[in-house]
Design brief:
By secondary structure, the protein is of the alpha/beta class. The chain has three domains: about 1-200, tt1808, chain A (Alpha-Beta Complex), CATH 3.90.1570; about 220-235 and about 500-600, no CATH class; about 275-495, Rossmann fold (3-Layer(aba) Sandwich), CATH 3.40.50. It is about 50% helix and about 15% strand. The strands form four sheets. A six-stranded mixed beta sheet has the order 3-4-6-7-8-5, sandwiched between helices. The longest helix is centred in the C-terminal third of the chain and has 21 residues, at about 530-550. Residues about 255-285, about 285-290, about 620-625 and about 640-650 have low confidence and may be disordered.
């Protein structure tokens, strides 16, 4: 008796009866419409699989996607989209592919059947996204197939595996699997989820935790090659101080398009203007930023130059100052207030510190402004007030008395740093001299200090007509944009992009090869080294870097990985480059990406952890955001976790 059968056996019996009933009517079904197919076949099959008509939820509204043929519900919750089509014609094969098994990616289904199935999949996917139901059953009454149409993260619908149960009227129809995945019992137990997620699982990116698997790695180190450390300290350090001005002249990089980062990584790696900057902010490479500084002189406004850590903000302003003093002498007065040694989280009195440093900059760069003639011109209104004041008649008869009183008054006036700076700078702008005051390296200060700096910058710009430039890291700008840094309408914001590392390296190497003898430090090198040996070693190392980074087929990849590890910080980039050069040996003729990863994966002497303790190998090409993933993991390692378990390289 059927009552003694299991639910599965009862369903199989009902389907056999259904197949027998309509086996001889297949031709008539071919001429039927969608509603007739649904009524005669699909409804009956669903009932056989244990679904009640009350759970069919036919013609359910699905937002802008339209009306779903069936939205099967279990316990009041939608769990399966059913797309019903006319029997026969919808899924007829176009002979491009042959169906010989029952699991294929969606892309294969689209090729194996005609365009009507492609449309059905597209429509079903819209229903799935609209309802949040991941799975869709597509059928024309005879052929049945099941898809996961909300793809797994990092994949696409085209790559999702679907199940082809076959033709209901064929002896090869997979009834057992249909029952397991589509019956009410199977769906209530989560079988579609378990099965389809399993066959659509892509192996996770391989992450080998080297330290856990084989213990800490240590690099066998030979003695450091002669002059290699000196090579990096002399030619790959900052170029803004003292006798390095010749390098500043030749090695400053202007263009920054980061073209070496290719295809899918380009949009991630490209250093573009952050969307939190004001809409009217301008995005410049370093050369454009330098020219923009000169455009702003004499504007009496505040200009904020923001960019990532190590992108070259300080180098930019020093290059601008260098060129202003060299080529615009007499027409431009550039003044740099470097606050790097004055600021920390507990620093206060920003105004006092800025005024003191600004006064020192004036005295250092423009000693003429300390002389009496310049002071008389700067304080002429105060002097006039004294001359025409209560003692005017006395001064008429006693010029020496006036000179003495004037000197005493000037002495008191110049003791006031704020008044002195405002009067001196105003006197210069009145003579059509473009005054540029740059406030640099205040990012480590407290928010109160930075707020006072911002207010002081505006006060000086308004009182003197000078352009006051503030350099600021992107994070500092972002962190304060809803606080004190409510950018005023007249302020200008310039975003400075990170220089192109290929050009940075190329210019430094060209400088070593072509301008070594012109460097202002040659006299120091003669005193410290055998300069001929140092020159020969430097040019050998330079040639080696050129071969391995600029000519080698792996060169761009090596630069990309170092750049990733350094977060585009130029100083960190050079530091890592020196480390790699030492590890791989000054006599090595060829580097490749594996050499770099090996170097980064070991513990160095006196270091607590390697740069990259874990190896991360992307699976396939499904996800094009691995660089972003690397950055997040790198941040977790360096910013949040004291143990190096997240740091990774691809």
């Amino acid at each position: 008796m059927e009552t003694k059968l299991t639910p599965r056996e009862r369903a199989h019996s009902r389907l056999k009866a259904l197949i027998k009933k309509y086996q001889d009517q297949k031709d008539a079904l071919q001429d039927g419409n969608e509603a007739k197919t649904r009524l005669l076949l699909i409804d009956e099959v669903l009932k056989a699989l244990g679904w009640d008509e009350s759970e069919f939820n036919p013609e359910a509204k699905s937002g802008t996607a339209g009306y779903i043929d069936y939205l099967l519900e279990y316990d009041g919750k939608p769990c399966l989209v059913v797309e019903a089509k006319k029997y026969g014609t919808t899924f007829s094969s176009n002979n491009k592919k042959t169906i010989t098994k029952h699991e294929y990616p969606v892309s294969y289904f689209k090729q194996a059947f005609n365009a009507s199935l492609t449309d059905a999949i597209k429509q079903s996917a819209a229903y799935c996204w609209s309802t949040g139901v991941s799975f869709a059953l597509i059928t024309n009454g005879a052929e049945w197939m099941l898809f996961q149409l909300i793809p797994s993260m990092g994949s696409s619908i085209e790559k999702m595996q679907g199940v082809y149960f076959g033709n209901l009227f064929s002896e090869s129809f997979y009834f057992d699997q249909l029952w397991e995945l589509v019956s009410k019992d199977g769906v209530s137990q989560g079988q579609p989820h378990s099965y389809l997620y399993e066959i659509n699982y892509s192996p996770s990116p391989v992450c080998k935790l080297l330290q856990s698997e084989i213990g800490p790695l240590r690099w066998w180190e030979s003695p450091s090659p002669a002059f290699l450390n000196e090579f990096y300290s002399e030619f790959f350090g900052e170029i803004i101080h003292g006798k390095r001005q010749k390098m500043l002249e030749h090695c400053f990089v202007g263009d920054s398009k980061l073209e070496q980062y290719k295809r899918e990584l380009k949009s991630i790696l490209k250093d573009s203007k952050p969307n939190f900057l004001p809409p009217e902010s301008e995005d410049f490479d370093p050369m454009g930023g330098k020219e923009e500084i000169f455009k702003e002189v004499g504007s009496g406004r505040v200009v904020i130059i923001t960019g990532a850590v190590g992108c070259g903000k300080t180098t930019l302003v020093n290059k601008a100052l260098y060129e202003a003093r060299r080529y615009k002498k007499g027409t431009t007065l550039p003044l740099l207030v470097d606050l790097i040694n004055d600021v920390h989280k507990r620093a206060s009195n920003a105004k006092e510190i800025i005024l003191k440093r600004a006064r020192e900059a004036i005295s250092d760069k423009e000693p003429e402004l300390r002389k009496n003639a310049a002071l008389l011109k700067a304080f002429k209104s105060e002097i006039k007030e004294i001359r025409e004041g209560p003692y005017a008649e006395i001064y008429d008869n006693n010029e020496e008395r006036f000179i003495e009183d004037r000197a005493a008054a000037l002495s008191r006036l110049i003791d006031d740093d704020e008044l002195y700076i405002k009067r001196i700078l105003k006197s210069k702008t009145s003579d059509n001299v473009n005054v540029v005051l740059i406030l640099d390296n205040a990012d480590k200060a407290s928010e109160d200090f930075q707020e006072e700096l911002y207010v002081t910058a505006h006060s000086l710009a308004e009182a003197t007509g000078a352009t006051v430039i503030i350099t600021m890291r992107e994070f500092t700008f972002f962190n304060n944009m809803n606080g004190f840094l409510d950018v005023r309408p007249d302020d200008k914001v310039i975003h400075l992009k990170t220089p192109d590392f290929v050009k940075l390296i190329s210019k430094r190497l060209s400088y070593i090869e072509k301008h070594f003898d012109e460097d202002y430090r040659c006299s120091d090198w003669r005193r410290l080294y055998d300069i001929n040996t140092f020159k020969q070693a430097s040019q050998t190392y330079s040639s080696q870097l050129r071969e391995n980074l600029l000519k080698n087929s792996d060169g761009s990849k090596i630069i990309e990985v170092i750049s990733c590890a350094a977060w585009h910080n130029v100083r960190s980039f050079y530091s890592y480059l020196g480390r790699i050069h030492k590890d791989l040996g000054a006599d090595a003729s060829y580097w490749n990406i594996s050499h770099l990863i090996a170097s980064f994966s070991v513990i160095k002497e006196l270091e607590k952890k390697p740069v990259i303790p874990n190896i991360f190998i992307p699976y396939g090409n499904d996800n094009y955001c691995y660089f972003l993933k690397l950055r997040i993991l790198h941040y977790l390692n360096d910013g949040l976790c004291k143990y190096p378990i997240y740091n990774t390289v691809i």
